[in-house]
Write a structure and sequence with these properties.
The protein has about 625 residues and is of the alpha+beta class. The protein folds into four domains: about 300 residues, 3-Layer(bba) Sandwich (FAD/NAD(P)-binding domain), CATH 3.50.50; about 120 residues, Elongation Factor Tu (Ef-tu), domain 3 (Beta Barrel); about 80 residues, tRNA uridine 5-carboxymethylaminomethyl modification enzyme MnmG/GidA (Arc Repressor Mutant, subunit A); about 60 residues, DNA polymerase, domain 1. The chain has 20 helices and 22 strands. A hairpin with a 4-residue loop joins β8 and β9. The longest helix has 22 residues.
Length: about 625
């Protein structure tokens, strides 16, 4: 018998299994195909706005995604460098096959973890133990199960007027597992996503494209990845004690644009597009629409950008980012060949839509445990999310909480002010999904506090408490934290006389000027030449955005009172007089754990909150329970 069983070895399953095993739980990972571990069925990339933040948070907690992309990337860039630090984010192109192989190797080397190939068709519970039954009748028992089914639940692929059962191209669908979940009492919904065609690099006219090079400066997702001390870009004062590793060359990506001819081809074939003929029933992601949807919704646009992204060092396959489609194969080829750089292009794989079952996340708590069955956790696309990074973020939290439950310890809850992981999970358990959920920086009200550059400072201590971060790494982060605090204090007491006004100002105030960087201070003898570059970056951000940061921290403190006001799980909302029907319905559906969660539920107004707070206080007085605040 296992303490934790993880079903599915996509990005959520890998993080869940590794977290549970690294915390000392005897763990089993079951997957339909061991050759498709951590597969990238859609875009061969990791990161981007909000998503890159997530990856760094996973790394700070002790997860694997950041290290794995650092090992296998073919290109990396920092996005939004012309904007503020809150929205800057890393994005890397992966060697698709190497990424999967590297993660598989990590799983196979992990102590306390068994990895097996099996198709799970049924989940059940008996005498407090959960079990998973395979298609050949084998039964595995465990104290906890983390289900990360991805897009496989009763899934079908759709291309033109054709459709067939498949979890992803070339994979089985989990046809019977959905019915098993219904028998357990779960409600299922239907969503849709898609992928673009892949084309042969040898048939692209690259002279008609705009090159998109990678970064010349070494960049890494993981705070613990080996830095290149021997390269000319090496940090002379590394904050972490790391082994040297040389910076490697990168593959460029390429930019092309659709044109009016492309749009005419798509428009003239909308009668063959399953998105418009009614063949597709599931709701697709608004922020990643198919190319045919874009042509209809944005009819005023003359062109749309498409990015040609290589899928690896040793393959000719190129991913056409921005061209998600379920149009018939002949239309896809015509569409591509209407673009000057692709006039002679050949498709290697056709684009397709995929429709699948998911579990509306009102059925899970903020721990990612289901409300119906103790010990059963959902993570990843089964919760209605889309994206590798969103799945991995849920996976590590589900794995941690399954391991904590196996040890009889309280669960881990990441708050909205602690990380994008907290924002995502809180959104899932307080809002009804109308489309696949994608994390955006605009979803985080404290995004200036949740920057990708400070994820280690925010979350490493939690990873250390969970046993996923070793002491050396934890102490290195604390050393960095102390160095930042000491330098801010020192700068506040160092003064410089302005040549323009003759007025004496502190070095910290001087640093707040838009044209002044920390290196400016160093050049003028005010900075510390020995301060690590990562710590210097934090000093500069803290100085320049101090007012905004302080306001957000004050708001966090104000909301903390509502976070502490817990709502009993069995609280009777029907007994509250004066509560509107919609609010009562939503509160019963989501069963918020705190007043803060309740305040974020769509349909619950400030007036509803006032009534709820009065009744909670009355209930506490009647039961004799002390108020937590």
């Amino acid at each position: 018998m296992y303490e934790v069983i993880v079903i599915g070895a996509g990005h959520a399953g890998c993080e869940a299994a590794l977290a549970a095993a690294r915390m000392g739980s005897k763990t089993l990972l079951l997957t339909m195909n061991l050759d498709n571990v951590a597969l990238m069925p859609c875009n061969p990339s990791i990161g981007g706005p909000a998503k890159g933040h997530l990856v760094r948070e996973i790394d700070a907690l002790g997860g694997e995604m950041a290290r794995n992309i650092d090992r296998t990337l073919i290109q990396i860039r920092m996005l939004n460098t012309g904007k503020g630090p809150a929205v800057q984010a890393l994005r890397a192109q992966a060697d698709k096959k190497l990424y999967s192989l590297s993660m598989k190797h990590t799983l196979e080397q992990q102590q306390n973890l068994d990895v097996k190939q099996a198709l799970v068709e049924e989940i059940g519970v008996e005498d407090g133990l959960l079990w998973a039954k395979t298609n050949i009748g084998w039964v595995y028992e465990g104290k906890n199960i983390v289900l990360t089914a991805g897009t496989s639940l009763t899934a079908r692929i759709i291309i033109g007027d054709k459709s067939y059962s498949a979890g992803r191209a070339g994979e089985f669908a989990a046809e019977k597992l959905s019915e098993s979940l219904r028998r357990l009492g779960f409600t299922l919904g239907r969503l849709k996503t898609g992928t673009p065609p892949r084309i042969d690099a040898r048939t692209i006219d690259f002279e008609k494209t705009t090159i998109q090079p990678g970064s010349e400066v070494p960049l890494y997702f993981s705070f613990w990845t080996e830095r290149g001390r021997d390269s000319k870009f090496a940090d002379p004062n590394p904050i972490y004690p790391l082994t040297p590793s040389p910076w490697r060359p990168q593959l460029p990506c390429y930019l092309v644009y659709t044109n009016e001819k492309t749009h005419d081809i798509i428009r003239s074939n909308l009668d063959r597009a399953p998105l418009f003929t009614g063949l597709i029933h599931g709701v697709g992601p608004r922020y990643c629409p198919s190319i045919e949807d874009k042509i209809v919704r944005f009819a005023h646009k003359d062109s749309h950008p498409l990015f040609l992204e290589p899928e690896g060092w040793e393959t000719n396959e190129v991913y056409v980012q921005g061209a998600n489609t379920s149009l018939p194969e002949d239309v896809q080829l015509q569409m591509l060949r209407s673009i000057p750089a692709l006039e002679k292009v050949e498709m290697i794989r056709v684009g397709y839509a995929i429709e699948y079952d998911y579990m509306p996340p009102s059925q899970i708590s903020a721990t990612l445990a289901t409300k119906l069955i103790p010990g059963l956790f959902f993570a990843g696309q089964i919760n209605g999310t889309t994206g590798y990074e969103e799945a991995a973020g849920q996976g590590i939290i589900a794995g941690i909480n399954a391991a904590l439950r196996a040890k009889g310890k309280p669960p881990l809850l990441v708050r909205r002010d602690q990380g994008y992981i907290g924002v995502m999970i809180d959104d899932l358990v307080t809002r009804e999904l109308t489309e696949p959920y994608r994390l955006l920086t605009s979803r985080a009200e404290y995004r200036l506090l949740l920057r990708q550059d400070n994820a280690d400072l925010r979350l490493t201590h939690i990873g250390y408490q969970m046993g996923l971060i070793d002491r050396a790494r934890y102490e290195a982060v604390e050393k960095k934290r102390n160095a930042i605090a000491q330098e801010l204090e020192r700068l506040s007491k160092s003064y410089i006389t302005s040549a323009e006004t003759g007025r004496s100002v502190s070095a910290l105030e001087f640093l707040r000027r838009p044209e002044v960087s920390y290196q400016t201070l160093v050049s003028q003898g005010l900075g510390s030449p020995g301060l690590n570059s990562e710590a210097a970056e934090q000093v500069e951000i803290e100085a320049k955005y101090e007012g905004y940061i302080q306001r957000q921290r004050a708001e966090v403190a104000r909301m903390a009172r509502l976070e502490q006001r817990q709502i009993p799980e069995e609280f009777d909302y029907d007994a509250i007089t004066g509560l509107r029907y919609e609010a009562r319905h939503k509160l019963k559906l989501f069963r918020p754990a705190t007043l803060s969660q309740a305040s974020r539920i769509d349909g619950v107004t400030p007036a509803d909150m006032a009534i709820l707070m009065v009744h909670l206080e009355r209930a506490r007085h009647e039961t004799g329970r002390p108020s937590p605040v």
